[in-house]
Every structure is written in C-alpha cells, then in structure tokens.
Design goal:
It is a single chain. The protein contains eleven helices and eleven strands. It is an alpha/beta fold. The strands form two sheets. Strands 6-7-8-9-11-10 form a six-stranded mixed beta sheet. The chain is globular and about 55 Å long.
C-alpha cells in the first residue's frame, strides 16, 4: 500500500482527473471528493466529480461546483470513501477497472484500485484527504469547507467513538482557515424537517427490542416514505436514531430501497462488531458502523440480521 507521501506524489503527477463517490452519497464521500478536486485545481490540474444520481439536497452545495460536464474524458480516475466497487453508482460502473488511486478508511476496503491508500484508524476519509492535500500545498478555505463536512459528518460532530486526537487536530486546522463551520453544524446536526420528524416518530412507534433490550430494530419501509412524502434528504442518517436509546448497544436500521430489498445499517458498541455481522450478509464497514443489503421479505431479512448478530455476539439471546 502507498504512503501518504506516495499518494500525494501520484496525485501531483495526474491530470484530467475524474473523482468518484459512492451510492447514497454521505458527507464524507462528497466532502472528500470536493476537497480533493479543489486541491487538484489549485495545482493547475483539470479535475471533476462524476455526477452522482443519488445526491441529496444537503450535500449538493458542496458537490455541484465540481460536477463533470457530460463530455469530459478523464485520463485518471480516483475514488474517495468507496470500500468496494459494488458501491459505485450505476454511471460509475464503467470506471470500475480504471481506478488509478482508491482512497478509503473502511476496514472492509477491497483494494480494487490499481493503487490504494486505506487507513482504518481514520474517523473519516476526509482526514486522509486533509493529510494528502497538506503534502501538496497550503489548505485553502475552499478545500477546508468540504473537508469539515467530510470529517464532522462521519464522526457525528465529534461525538462518535471513532473520533481521535488527530480528528480534532484536523478540525482545528480547518477552522483556522476561516470557514463558516457553524452553518455546516446547523445544517447537518441541528436542523430537521417536519417530514424527518414524522419519519422518526413512526420508526420509534414501531421499534422492536431484542436481546434483553440491548438490540433495537427500526424499520423504514417504502410505505412509510410514501405516507409522509419524504424526500431522500429527509431520510439521511436515520441510522443514528437507535443508538441514542438508553441501554441499546446495537441499533439496527432497516431501510427498504425497493420492494423486499432492505439496506441494513448497524451502529454498535464494543460487544457487537458491526463489520463482522454485516460481512456475514455480504456487507462491511467499521467495527461500530457497518451496512449490508438483503433481498427478502421484511421478517426474513430481519431474521437473517438477528442471526448474524447472534453469531458475532455469543451472549446474544432473543
């Protein structure tokens, strides 16, 4: 695997770069990609982000200034915060075997790039992008703003247990550039739409507890999305809800993507390794935050996940 200095050197040699983000893009993949694009442009490079069809209204302001025109033909391809080629959006799949450099922080990273840099100890891929950009030159406010989005969103505004001293050091350096971090915090952490609140109320009203109350299962079926007429922005990061419940150390959020296709998001404490549980169902992620997709009716999909949790948590009881 490359070092930070080697990764920076590769990027310094690249031009006409296309940067890829993952399906259901979150703040880390968008912020990392946008900051890297700004950094490459500061070096005089031509760089763009491949448009992501699932971009939400919340992340769009950080993405759209760097979106590639339809006729852009890249010489180099870089991915940010994508753990596996299976997580490429549909329009990114033609580039699956063309990724010159993959940058990621997931323990389940599959090493699909021609060259790769992965650091599982990083709270966010944004931390890694910061270190790379610092090797390439001064960090400007244009780079710092999306980097703050990347880092802050992946560690829950510095509340999750993946937050480290380096995470805080990076955030402090970003703030010193003069960015409006308070506006980011307001948008991502302190604002909820009425439809979002309706989703949360319905989820909590139907919550299931297992394992003596230590495992909570919250469901977001398509019927609920339709009932409250929720947009994708309203449904962002619903997986954080279950982990706030007292006594719960394994929160399971089930989001129905298509009829009988369920996206699972796990948020766990040290007793349950989320990556190991999701890996049993073809997914991955981090020890405390991971996901997978299961195609089955609700009860069967839920049962498979509970069985997976039981296999990695020997003291689990229904």
């Amino acid at each position: 695997m490359l070092t930070i200095q080697e990764a920076a050197g590769r990027l310094r040699s690249f031009d006409n770069v296309l940067i890829l983000t993952h399906v259901r893009p979150d703040g880390d993949t968008v912020g990392s990609a946008a900051a890297l694009c700004a950094g490459l442009r500061a070096l005089g490079k031509t760089a763009y982000l491949l448009p992501n069809p699932e971009l939400t209204d919340t992340a769009a302001p950080y993405f759209r200034p760097y979106a590639a025109p339809a006729d852009f033909q890249p010489e180099r391809v870089v991915s940010t915060d994508i753990a596996a080629a299976a997580l490429f959006p549909e329009n990114a799949k033609p580039y699956a075997e063309r990724v010159d450099l993959a940058i990621d922080h997931h323990p389940s990273f599959e090493g699909f790039g021609r060259e790769n840099y992965v650091r599982p100890s990083a709270a966010a891929t944004g931390e890694i992008i910061y270190d790379i950009l610092a090797e390439l030159g001064p960090i400007t406010a244009e780079m710092a703003l999306p980097l703050y989005v990347a880092v802050s969103t992946d560690c829950g505004c510095f509340a999750y247990n993946n937050t480290t001293a380096h995470t805080h050091a990076v955030a402090a350096a970003l703030l010193r550039t003069g960015i409006d971090f308070q506006a980011v915090n307001k948008t991502f952490f302190r604002t909820k739409t009425k439809k979002r609140l309706a989703l949360e109320a319905a989820m909590l009203g139907e919550i299931e507890y297992h394992d003596h109350g230590r495992v909570a299962v919250l469901a977001v079926p398509l019927s609920l999305i339709a009932k409250v007429q929720a947009a994708e922005t309203d449904a962002e990061d619903l997986s954080a809800l279950g982990g706030q419940i007292e006594g719960v150390d394994c929160a399971v959020t089930m989001r129905e993507l298509r009829p009988d296709v369920w996206k699972f998001s796990l948020r766990t404490g040290p007793r349950v390794n989320a990556t190991n549980a999701c890996a049993l169902l073809g997914g991955g992620g981090h020890a405390a935050a991971a996901g997978c997709t299961v195609e089955a009716p609700f009860a069967e999909a839920k049962g498979r996940m509970l069985e997976a949790i039981a296999r990695v948590a020997p003291d689990f009881t229904l």
